[in-house]
Amino acid sequence: MHPESYFMHLCSVYATLLHSLFEDVMLKTERQRKILTLILARPIGTQTDLKTHLERAGVPATQSSVSRDLEELGVVKHNGRYTLPKPNGAASHGLLGLDTAGDNLVVAQTESGLASAVAVQIDAATLPEIVGTIAGENTIFIAVRERKTQRAVIKKIWDLFE
């Protein structure tokens, strides 16, 4: 294969992967926003109920994705219903969720307009596992050195904002 053709093929593959990643992140962001809205709007006591409400609202969800979202959002159960995290937690700083993507990427979801502020705090922590961050409006891509450090980085970032 000619070098230019090979390069164009790699660019196409890379663009397809980025598009797929972007779609996954957007679906997760939409689902997490809807979860917060639902919890504020009505008493919801089980993940099954929450999943049903999400699906009625046109937001696809699995039980495992709902479970992960509740954990990432810091949602707690109080008096038999889900409630939002206390204001002194990560959400008060704008951080809503963290997830892995690929081998060397952690994706952070923030309140709209707060990604840069959250990224500055992450960068200021100078975690050795983090290579760098790129912040948009409500999403931060966090590059990590190795796949095996992704989960540790997620825990350390949550700890920064507790």
Topology:
Elements: H1 3-41, H2 47-56, H3 63-73, E1 76-78, E2 81-83, E3 95-101, E4 105-110, H4 115-124, E5 130-135, E6 139-144, H5 150-160
Antiparallel strand pairs: 1-2, 3-4, 4-6, 5-6
Helix pairs in contact: 1-3
In short:
By secondary structure, this protein is an alpha+beta fold. Helices cover 50% and strands 19% of the residues. A hairpin with a 2-residue loop joins strand 1 and strand 2 (81-83).
Structure overview:
- The protein is built from five helices and six strands; from the N terminus they run αααββββαββα.
- It is of the alpha+beta class and 162 residues long.
- It folds into two domains: 3-83, Winged helix-like DNA-binding domain superfamily/Winged helix DNA-binding domain (Arc Repressor Mutant, subunit A); 90-160, Gyrase A, domain 2, CATH 3.30.1360.40.
- β5 (130-135) and β6 form a beta hairpin.
- The protein is globular and about 65 Å long.
- The model has no long low-confidence stretch (mean pLDDT 82).
